[in-house]
Protein backbone atom coordinates (compact mmCIF):
# COMPACT_ATOMS: atom_id res chain seq x y z
CA UNK A 1 0.00 0.00 0.00
CA UNK A 2 1.50 3.30 -1.05
CA UNK A 3 1.99 5.94 1.57
CA UNK A 4 0.19 9.19 0.99
CA UNK A 5 2.50 12.10 0.39
CA UNK A 6 2.09 15.82 -0.02
CA UNK A 7 1.63 17.01 -3.57
CA UNK A 8 3.23 20.08 -5.15
CA UNK A 9 1.66 22.11 -7.91
CA UNK A 10 3.99 24.30 -9.94
CA UNK A 11 2.57 27.28 -11.80
CA UNK A 12 4.90 28.37 -14.50
CA UNK A 13 4.48 32.03 -15.29
CA UNK A 14 6.50 32.95 -18.37
CA UNK A 15 7.23 36.65 -18.53
CA UNK A 16 9.19 38.40 -21.19
CA UNK A 17 11.54 41.10 -20.02
CA UNK A 18 12.83 43.32 -22.78
CA UNK A 19 15.49 45.92 -22.40
CA UNK A 20 17.38 48.00 -24.84
CA UNK A 21 20.96 47.07 -25.35
CA UNK A 22 23.54 49.61 -26.28
CA UNK A 23 25.68 49.21 -29.34
CA UNK A 24 28.77 48.51 -27.29
CA UNK A 25 27.12 45.98 -25.00
CA UNK A 26 27.08 42.32 -25.83
CA UNK A 27 23.54 40.93 -26.17
CA UNK A 28 22.78 37.90 -24.10
CA UNK A 29 19.77 35.73 -23.40
CA UNK A 30 18.74 32.76 -21.33
CA UNK A 31 18.89 29.21 -22.54
CA UNK A 32 15.21 28.64 -21.91
CA UNK A 33 14.14 31.77 -23.80
CA UNK A 34 16.40 30.71 -26.68
CA UNK A 35 14.71 27.31 -26.64
CA UNK A 36 11.32 28.97 -26.87
CA UNK A 37 12.42 31.04 -29.88
CA UNK A 38 14.21 28.23 -31.69
CA UNK A 39 11.24 25.88 -31.32
CA UNK A 40 8.16 27.89 -32.29
CA UNK A 41 6.11 24.74 -32.91
CA UNK A 42 6.60 23.64 -29.36
CA UNK A 43 5.41 27.02 -28.20
CA UNK A 44 2.30 26.85 -30.35
CA UNK A 45 1.41 23.34 -29.27
CA UNK A 46 2.06 24.05 -25.63
CA UNK A 47 -1.05 24.69 -23.54
CA UNK A 48 0.80 27.54 -21.88
CA UNK A 49 1.33 29.52 -25.10
CA UNK A 50 -1.68 31.74 -24.50
CA UNK A 51 -0.62 32.23 -20.92
CA UNK A 52 2.89 33.16 -22.02
CA UNK A 53 1.69 35.71 -24.56
CA UNK A 54 -0.68 37.36 -22.13
CA UNK A 55 1.84 37.60 -19.28
CA UNK A 56 3.88 40.76 -19.40
CA UNK A 57 4.50 41.51 -15.73
CA UNK A 58 8.08 41.32 -14.53
CA UNK A 59 8.74 38.97 -11.60
CA UNK A 60 12.53 38.79 -11.83
CA UNK A 61 14.64 41.90 -11.36
CA UNK A 62 16.74 43.04 -14.27
CA UNK A 63 19.94 43.16 -12.29
CA UNK A 64 23.36 42.62 -13.89
CA UNK A 65 23.87 39.36 -11.99
CA UNK A 66 20.91 37.59 -13.59
CA UNK A 67 22.20 37.78 -17.21
CA UNK A 68 25.52 36.32 -16.12
CA UNK A 69 23.77 33.27 -14.74
CA UNK A 70 21.77 32.71 -17.91
CA UNK A 71 24.88 33.34 -20.01
CA UNK A 72 26.52 30.37 -18.35
CA UNK A 73 23.47 28.23 -19.03
CA UNK A 74 23.21 29.14 -22.74
CA UNK A 75 26.37 29.10 -24.86
CA UNK A 76 24.54 30.79 -27.79
CA UNK A 77 23.34 33.70 -25.74
CA UNK A 78 25.46 36.22 -27.62
CA UNK A 79 23.63 35.59 -30.91
CA UNK A 80 20.40 37.30 -29.84
CA UNK A 81 19.80 41.03 -29.69
CA UNK A 82 17.16 40.98 -26.92
CA UNK A 83 17.27 39.16 -23.63
CA UNK A 84 14.27 37.32 -22.24
CA UNK A 85 13.83 35.83 -18.82
CA UNK A 86 11.60 33.12 -17.52
CA UNK A 87 9.91 33.49 -14.11
CA UNK A 88 8.68 30.53 -12.05
CA UNK A 89 6.19 30.55 -9.21
CA UNK A 90 6.01 27.47 -6.97
CA UNK A 91 2.97 26.85 -4.82
CA UNK A 92 3.01 23.79 -2.56
CA UNK A 93 -0.13 22.24 -1.14
CA UNK A 94 -0.06 19.65 1.59
CA UNK A 95 -1.99 16.47 1.10
CA UNK A 96 -5.20 15.54 2.88
CA UNK A 97 -6.93 18.79 2.08
CA UNK A 98 -10.62 18.63 2.88
CA UNK A 99 -12.59 17.63 -0.19
CA UNK A 100 -9.61 16.19 -2.07
CA UNK A 101 -9.04 12.57 -3.04
CA UNK A 102 -6.02 12.29 -0.75
CA UNK A 103 -8.07 13.42 2.22
CA UNK A 104 -10.78 10.84 1.52
CA UNK A 105 -8.13 8.17 1.06
CA UNK A 106 -6.50 9.12 4.37
CA UNK A 107 -9.84 8.98 6.19
CA UNK A 108 -10.51 5.49 4.80
CA UNK A 109 -7.03 4.25 5.70
CA UNK A 110 -6.78 5.85 9.15
CA UNK A 111 -10.19 6.96 10.45
CA UNK A 112 -9.01 7.13 14.07
CA UNK A 113 -6.20 9.53 13.17
CA UNK A 114 -8.52 11.71 11.11
CA UNK A 115 -11.02 11.96 13.95
CA UNK A 116 -8.22 12.70 16.42
CA UNK A 117 -6.82 15.49 14.23
CA UNK A 118 -10.27 17.04 13.84
CA UNK A 119 -10.86 16.83 17.59
CA UNK A 120 -7.52 18.49 18.41
CA UNK A 121 -8.26 21.21 15.86
CA UNK A 122 -11.50 22.29 17.51
CA UNK A 123 -10.67 21.49 21.12
CA UNK A 124 -9.11 24.84 21.93
CA UNK A 125 -11.99 26.82 20.43
CA UNK A 126 -14.58 24.71 22.26
CA UNK A 127 -12.65 25.16 25.50
CA UNK A 128 -12.72 28.95 25.14
CA UNK A 129 -16.49 28.91 24.54
CA UNK A 130 -17.10 26.70 27.58
CA UNK A 131 -14.88 28.91 29.75
CA UNK A 132 -16.78 32.03 28.65
CA UNK A 133 -20.14 30.32 29.31
CA UNK A 134 -18.97 29.31 32.80
CA UNK A 135 -17.86 32.85 33.66
CA UNK A 136 -21.23 34.28 32.59
CA UNK A 137 -23.48 31.69 34.24
CA UNK A 138 -21.49 30.15 37.09
CA UNK A 139 -23.97 31.33 39.73
CA UNK A 140 -26.89 29.65 37.97
CA UNK A 141 -24.84 26.47 37.45
CA UNK A 142 -23.81 26.34 41.10
CA UNK A 143 -27.41 26.95 42.20
CA UNK A 144 -28.74 24.18 39.96
CA UNK A 145 -26.02 21.82 41.22
CA UNK A 146 -26.92 22.62 44.83
CA UNK A 147 -30.59 21.85 44.18
CA UNK A 148 -29.72 18.52 42.54
CA UNK A 149 -27.42 17.54 45.41
CA UNK A 150 -30.10 18.53 47.93
CA UNK A 151 -32.74 16.35 46.22
CA UNK A 152 -30.40 13.35 45.95
CA UNK A 153 -29.36 13.69 49.59
CA UNK A 154 -32.99 13.99 50.65
CA UNK A 155 -34.00 10.81 48.81
CA UNK A 156 -31.02 8.87 50.19
CA UNK A 157 -31.66 9.94 53.80
CA UNK A 158 -35.38 9.27 53.50
CA UNK A 159 -34.79 5.80 52.03
CA UNK A 160 -32.31 4.84 54.77
CA UNK A 161 -34.56 6.14 57.56
CA UNK A 162 -37.71 4.46 56.21
CA UNK A 163 -35.86 1.13 56.11
CA UNK A 164 -35.09 1.04 59.83
CA UNK A 165 -37.67 3.38 61.41
CA UNK A 166 -41.38 3.64 60.76
CA UNK A 167 -42.18 7.34 60.57
CA UNK A 168 -45.15 9.22 59.29
CA UNK A 169 -44.74 10.01 55.63
CA UNK A 170 -45.25 13.79 55.90
CA UNK A 171 -42.92 14.28 58.86
CA UNK A 172 -40.20 12.13 57.31
CA UNK A 173 -40.32 13.83 53.91
CA UNK A 174 -40.29 17.42 55.09
CA UNK A 175 -37.91 16.73 57.97
CA UNK A 176 -35.27 15.10 55.80
CA UNK A 177 -35.79 17.76 53.11
CA UNK A 178 -34.97 20.46 55.66
CA UNK A 179 -31.98 18.44 56.88
CA UNK A 180 -30.65 18.03 53.33
CA UNK A 181 -31.08 21.75 52.58
CA UNK A 182 -29.24 22.62 55.79
CA UNK A 183 -26.35 20.28 54.93
CA UNK A 184 -26.00 21.70 51.41
CA UNK A 185 -26.11 25.28 52.74
CA UNK A 186 -23.49 24.47 55.38
CA UNK A 187 -21.22 22.90 52.75
CA UNK A 188 -21.64 25.98 50.53
CA UNK A 189 -20.71 28.33 53.36
CA UNK A 190 -17.70 26.18 54.21
CA UNK A 191 -16.33 26.27 50.67
CA UNK A 192 -17.05 29.98 50.40
CA UNK A 193 -15.10 30.73 53.57
CA UNK A 194 -12.26 28.50 52.40
CA UNK A 195 -11.76 30.05 48.98
CA UNK A 196 -12.75 33.71 49.55
CA UNK A 197 -11.01 36.51 51.46
CA UNK A 198 -12.72 38.53 54.18
CA UNK A 199 -11.30 42.10 54.28
CA UNK A 200 -12.37 42.55 57.91
CA UNK A 201 -10.37 39.49 58.91
CA UNK A 202 -7.36 40.80 56.98
CA UNK A 203 -7.70 44.11 58.85
CA UNK A 204 -7.77 42.34 62.23
CA UNK A 205 -4.74 40.23 61.30
CA UNK A 206 -2.78 43.33 60.28
CA UNK A 207 -3.69 45.24 63.46
CA UNK A 208 -2.64 42.26 65.59
CA UNK A 209 0.74 42.11 63.83
CA UNK A 210 1.28 45.85 64.18
CA UNK A 211 0.39 45.98 67.87
CA UNK A 212 2.86 43.16 68.60
CA UNK A 213 5.75 44.70 66.64
CA UNK A 214 8.26 46.43 68.92
CA UNK A 215 9.77 48.52 66.10
CA UNK A 216 6.42 49.98 64.99
CA UNK A 217 5.32 50.70 68.56
CA UNK A 218 8.65 52.42 69.29
CA UNK A 219 8.30 54.73 66.28
CA UNK A 220 4.55 55.48 66.42
CA UNK A 221 3.82 55.00 70.11
CA UNK A 222 1.44 52.54 71.76
CA UNK A 223 -1.38 51.73 71.45
CA UNK A 224 -2.17 51.71 67.73
CA UNK A 225 -5.76 52.34 66.69
CA UNK A 226 -7.43 52.11 63.31
CA UNK A 227 -10.39 53.81 61.69
CA UNK A 228 -13.38 52.81 59.59
CA UNK A 229 -11.75 54.28 56.49
CA UNK A 230 -10.43 51.39 54.38
CA UNK A 231 -9.86 50.71 50.70
CA UNK A 232 -9.34 47.25 49.20
CA UNK A 233 -9.25 45.50 45.82
CA UNK A 234 -9.86 41.80 45.13
CA UNK A 235 -8.23 39.97 42.25
CA UNK A 236 -8.29 36.39 40.96
CA UNK A 237 -10.35 33.61 42.46
CA UNK A 238 -12.96 31.35 40.93
CA UNK A 239 -12.70 28.24 38.78
CA UNK A 240 -10.86 28.30 35.47
CA UNK A 241 -11.90 25.74 32.80
CA UNK A 242 -9.09 26.34 30.32
CA UNK A 243 -8.37 23.32 28.10
CA UNK A 244 -11.16 21.35 29.81
CA UNK A 245 -9.14 21.20 33.04
CA UNK A 246 -10.86 22.85 36.04
CA UNK A 247 -8.40 24.73 38.21
CA UNK A 248 -8.89 27.01 41.19
CA UNK A 249 -7.25 30.40 40.69
CA UNK A 250 -5.50 32.08 43.59
CA UNK A 251 -7.31 35.03 45.17
CA UNK A 252 -5.53 38.15 46.39
CA UNK A 253 -6.63 41.11 48.47
CA UNK A 254 -4.89 44.50 48.50
CA UNK A 255 -5.91 46.52 51.58
CA UNK A 256 -4.87 49.98 52.75
CA UNK A 257 -6.03 51.85 55.87
CA UNK A 258 -4.74 54.58 58.25
CA UNK A 259 -3.62 53.99 61.82
CA UNK A 260 -2.78 56.34 64.67
CA UNK A 261 -0.40 55.95 67.58
CA UNK A 262 0.25 58.13 70.57
CA UNK A 263 3.08 59.96 68.75
CA UNK A 264 2.58 59.61 64.99
CA UNK A 265 0.08 58.63 62.32
CA UNK A 266 0.67 56.16 59.51
CA UNK A 267 -0.80 54.41 56.49
CA UNK A 268 -0.78 50.60 56.38
CA UNK A 269 -0.52 48.60 53.12
CA UNK A 270 -1.39 44.89 53.14
CA UNK A 271 -1.36 42.18 50.45
CA UNK A 272 -2.85 38.79 51.31
CA UNK A 273 -3.25 35.62 49.24
CA UNK A 274 -5.59 32.74 50.04
CA UNK A 275 -3.54 29.56 49.72
CA UNK A 276 -5.09 26.16 50.54
CA UNK A 277 -7.68 27.81 52.75
CA UNK A 278 -5.10 29.78 54.75
CA UNK A 279 -4.21 33.48 54.67
CA UNK A 280 -0.71 34.05 53.34
CA UNK A 281 0.46 37.62 54.02
CA UNK A 282 2.75 38.75 51.20
CA UNK A 283 3.15 42.40 52.23
CA UNK A 284 2.70 44.41 55.42
CA UNK A 285 4.20 47.89 55.34
CA UNK A 286 3.58 51.19 57.16
CA UNK A 287 4.20 54.63 55.65
CA UNK A 288 4.97 57.15 58.40
CA UNK A 289 5.02 60.87 57.48
CA UNK A 290 8.03 62.68 58.95
CA UNK A 291 8.21 66.32 60.03
CA UNK A 292 11.24 66.90 57.80
CA UNK A 293 12.11 64.88 54.73
CA UNK A 294 10.23 62.18 52.84
CA UNK A 295 7.91 59.63 54.38
CA UNK A 296 9.50 56.64 56.07
CA UNK A 297 8.32 53.19 54.96
CA UNK A 298 8.73 50.30 57.39
CA UNK A 299 8.34 46.71 56.13
CA UNK A 300 7.19 44.04 58.55
CA UNK A 301 6.60 41.49 55.77
CA UNK A 302 7.77 41.71 52.17
CA UNK A 303 9.96 44.28 50.47
CA UNK A 304 9.86 47.06 47.88
CA UNK A 305 9.36 44.55 45.05
CA UNK A 306 6.13 43.28 46.61
CA UNK A 307 5.02 46.88 47.04
CA UNK A 308 5.32 47.49 43.28
CA UNK A 309 3.46 44.32 42.25
CA UNK A 310 0.49 44.76 39.93
CA UNK A 311 1.90 47.95 38.43
CA UNK A 312 1.90 49.75 41.78
CA UNK A 313 -1.66 48.84 42.75
CA UNK A 314 -1.04 49.68 46.42
CA UNK A 315 0.15 53.17 45.49
CA UNK A 316 -2.99 53.64 43.37
CA UNK A 317 -5.13 52.75 46.41
CA UNK A 318 -3.12 55.12 48.58
CA UNK A 319 -4.16 58.31 46.75
CA UNK A 320 -7.92 58.21 47.56
CA UNK A 321 -7.22 57.27 51.19
CA UNK A 322 -4.77 60.14 51.60
CA UNK A 323 -7.26 62.53 50.01
CA UNK A 324 -10.00 61.30 52.33
CA UNK A 325 -7.73 61.82 55.34
CA UNK A 326 -6.79 65.31 54.16
CA UNK A 327 -10.46 66.15 53.69
CA UNK A 328 -11.39 65.02 57.21
CA UNK A 329 -10.71 68.48 58.71
CA UNK A 330 -12.72 70.11 55.95
CA UNK A 331 -15.62 67.73 56.58
CA UNK A 332 -15.49 68.47 60.31
CA UNK A 333 -15.57 72.23 59.71
CA UNK A 334 -18.44 71.84 57.27
CA UNK A 335 -20.37 69.68 59.75
CA UNK A 336 -19.82 72.25 62.51
CA UNK A 337 -21.04 75.06 60.24
CA UNK A 338 -24.15 73.06 59.32
CA UNK A 339 -24.86 72.38 63.01
CA UNK A 340 -24.62 76.08 63.82
CA UNK A 341 -26.95 76.94 60.92
CA UNK A 342 -29.45 74.31 62.10
CA UNK A 343 -29.32 75.64 65.67
CA UNK A 344 -29.87 79.22 64.49
CA UNK A 345 -32.77 78.11 62.29
CA UNK A 346 -34.40 76.28 65.21
CA UNK A 347 -33.97 79.35 67.46
CA UNK A 348 -35.61 81.59 64.86
CA UNK A 349 -38.48 79.12 64.49
CA UNK A 350 -38.98 79.04 68.28
CA UNK A 351 -39.00 82.86 68.48
CA UNK A 352 -41.54 83.07 65.64
CA UNK A 353 -43.87 80.61 67.38
CA UNK A 354 -43.49 82.56 70.65
CA UNK A 355 -44.46 85.81 68.93
CA UNK A 356 -47.48 84.15 67.32
CA UNK A 357 -48.68 82.92 70.73
CA UNK A 358 -48.27 86.37 72.27
CA UNK A 359 -50.23 87.91 69.40
CA UNK A 360 -53.04 85.39 69.88
CA UNK A 361 -53.20 86.17 73.62
CA UNK A 362 -53.31 89.92 73.00
CA UNK A 363 -56.14 89.49 70.49
CA UNK A 364 -58.13 87.34 72.90
CA UNK A 365 -57.69 89.91 75.74
CA UNK A 366 -58.81 92.80 73.51
CA UNK A 367 -62.01 90.98 72.62
Automatic annotation (TrEMBL):
Acidic residues biased stretches: 335-344
Hydrolase found in the keyword field: no
Superkingdom: Eukaryota
UniProt biased composition (Basic and acidic residues): 345-367
Transmembrane segments: 138-165, 171-191
Segments for region (Disordered): 333-367
Keyword field: Membrane, Transmembrane, Transmembrane helix
Protein name: Import inner membrane translocase subunit
Organism expressing this protein natively: Fraxinus pennsylvanica
